[in-house]
Amino acid sequence: MTLIARTRDRAVETLSLDSPHNRNALSAALVGELADALTDAGKDTGVRAIVLTHTGNTFSAGADLKDPPPPEALVALLRQIIELPKPVVARVTGHVRAGGLGLLAACDIAAAATDATFAFTEVRIGVAPAVISLPLLPRTNPRALARHYLTGERFDAAQAQATGLLTTCADDVDTALGPILDGLRRSAPDALAETKRLLTARVLEAFDRDAADLTALSARLFSSPQAREGMTAFLERRDPAWVV
């Protein structure tokens, strides 16, 4: 079964997360297939830019708790998006949770519909947004992000834009993306690659400095007793034991 759908229009390659049965959760299989699709698009001289989007009502629900990718694989995927020599544009028309927000932050431009919702749900299942902090912390408002990280509250597209997660939000996300994609089509490929390199330099510094420590933190937390309780409670649709 293919988990990534591919289409192309005027040099823009669209990669759609296509696993709606589990709300496009980041399984080991989906992460691997997305990495392969990005590699292909990055090498293809006929591709000027990439749109990363989704089928169903959820961009991504975060890590697949039944088949999670190793933390190292998620780090590699996020870094691949950032290092790709072509702009990657996120198109969101649904909900984004946990690890899905890492994908969003790794993209160069992110647009969402105004009715999209977002949440860092990690703390509610006993873990932390460790690996996804690599692209998130350098690109977002620290004070706004702190509330979202620490509470796990759901927030809307306007708040996501104010936090720095989104470039833009609109009732019609495709109308909002129209001039952005036209602008990318008018830009010289080598100039786009070098300009992206300028924009991502500080993000890649965070990867070089912190990736090993955050990968280890993620692995430690996911194997902790609180995480086991949190994930079990989530799958059983009940509150975990620590809720007061």
Automatic annotation (TrEMBL):
Gene3D superfamilies: 2-enoyl-CoA Hydratase, Chain A, domain 1 (3.90.226.10), Lyase 2-enoyl-coa Hydratase, Chain A, domain 2 (1.10.12.10). InterPro entries: ClpP/crotonase-like_dom_sf, Enoyl-CoA_hydra/iso, Enoyl-CoA_hydra_C, Enoyl-CoA_Hydratase/Isomerase. It is an enzyme of class 4 (lyase). Keywords: Lyase. Transmembrane segments: none annotated. GO terms for molecular function: enoyl-CoA hydratase activity. NCBIfam families: PRK07827.1. This is Enoyl-CoA hydratase. Pfam families: ECH_1. Its EC number is 4.2.1.17. CDD domains: crotonase-like. It comes from Streptomyces luteogriseus. Belongs to the enoyl-CoA hydratase/isomerase family.
